[in-house]
Write a structure and sequence with these properties.
Porin; alpha+beta; 19% helix; 2 domains
Amino acid sequence: MFARRRRLAAALAALGFAGALPTALVAQAVPPPATTVAAADPASEPASVDLLMAEIRRLQVAIETLQTELAESRRQTAEVQQALQALRAELEEEQQLLDSTVSGLEQVKVESGSKYRVRLFGMALMQMVSARGSVDNIDLPILAMESIPGDSGGNISAAVRQSFIGLAVFGPKFGGLDTSGDLRLDFFGGFPAVNDGLSAAGLRLRTMSIAADGRYVSIRAGQEAPFFSPLSPTSLANTAYPAMSSSGNIWAWTPQIYVERRFERSEESTVTLRAGVLDALTGELPAGEYSRLPTAGERSRLPASAVRVGWRRRRGERTAAGGAGVYYSRHNWGFERMVNAWAVAGDVEVPVGSRFAFSGEFYRGVAIGGLGGGAHSSVLFQGSPDEPSSVVHPLRSIGGWAQAKYTATPKLEFNLAMGGDRSRPRWFGGLLEPPSNEVPSASRNASAFLNLMYQARSNLIFTVEYKRLWTRRFDGRAWLADHVGLGGAIVF
C-alpha cells in the first residue's frame, strides 16, 4: 500500500502538480512515519485513492478557471494602461501649457501701473483664401460686387491680419462689486501706401469694456456689440467682423453703458433685465481720416437707448436661452429733417439632444444702418442731400440669421448658417441718393456658410469654410460670389 502511494506522489511530482497542490494534500501523498503506517487500515486504501483523485480533478478545474481569469485580467490591465497613456499625454499637454504660462509670468511679467493683475491674451490666425467672382474684401468678404472689365473672375491669397491681441485687468472691489476691464486690438485697420503695404496692415481698436460685477447686478461701459443683440454665428474665418455682418446680424461695436439685473428663478433658471444708452450711430462714413464730425444721430443731441429682457436655463452642460430687445434713437439730417429710428430684436439658443444646437436672431426696424445688420445707410435722399428741399426717406429693414451646430466629437464641430437683410424706403419715388459721404447701398444682402472647426489641442484650432454671398443694389443690379477659406490659429 505504501509503495503505491509513493508511486502516485512521484507521478504527481513528475506532472508538475506537486508544487500547485495544497500542503495538506502533499502531506497526504507522503508516507507517514513507520509507527503511523503500522496502525493504518489496509481496507481504507481504495477509498483514500479515490478521494485523492477527486481532489486532483477539482484542483485541475480550479487551475483552468484561474488561468482564464488571469488572461481576462491581463486584457483589462492592457486596456487600463492604454487609457492611462492617453490620460498621461493629455496631462503632459496641460502641464506643458501650465509650465509655459507660469514661465511666461515669471520671465516676462505683464506689469501695470497699479498693483492689480493684468493678463495678456489673443489669437494668431493664418488664412489661405480663394474667391470666385468679385467681393468687397478678399480676406473677409461682406458684399458681392460687380466685376470690372478685364478681371480674372477670382483670386487666391493669404493673410494674417485677422489676428488679434488683448489685455485684461482685474481691479479692486468697489461698492461691493468686482471691477475689471479689457481692451482688444487687431490688424484690420487698413494698409499703408507703401510697396509692402499689403503685408503691413494697420492696428485697429475692436472693443473695450469696463465692468463692475456682483451676484445680481452688473454695470458695463465701453465699446462692444449692442447689449440688446448679444449673439453671432460661429466662424473662425469671420474674426475681424462677426459672421453675417451686413447679412442680418446686428453686431456693430458701439460705445455704450448699461446696467444688468439678474433674477434667479431657480438654481438652473435666470431672468435678466438690461437697460442703457448707446452712441446713436447711423452708418455714415467718417468725415476724414483724422477728424471726427457729428453724425445725424449725434446731432440730435439725444443718445440712443435700449432695453432687453433675457432668459437662460442650464441643465448639465446644455444651455437654452432667449431674449428680446427694443432700441430707439433720433436723427437730425440737417435743415430740421428729423427721423425716428427704432428696432425690435429677438434671439434664441436651443440645444437638441447631446450633439445638435440651433441659434438665431431676428429684427425689424427703421433707419438702423448704424447697427451693422445690413449693407446700407440709414436713409436715402430724393435729391441732393445738401439741398434743404431734398426729402429724406428712412429705410425700413427686416433681417436675421439662423445657425445649426453639430458637435461630432468634443474636438470637432460643424456649423451651417445663413442670414440676410432687406432694406428699402416706404415708397420709391425715382432715383434716391445716399448721404453725400457714402458709397451706394445694397437693398438686399444675404450670405450663407458651412464650416468645419477642429480643436487639435486646447489652444490649436483648424478650420475650413465655404461661403456664398448675394447682393442686390437699389438700382436692381445683383451679383453672386463664392469664397473658400482654410485657416489655423494658436490661441494664447
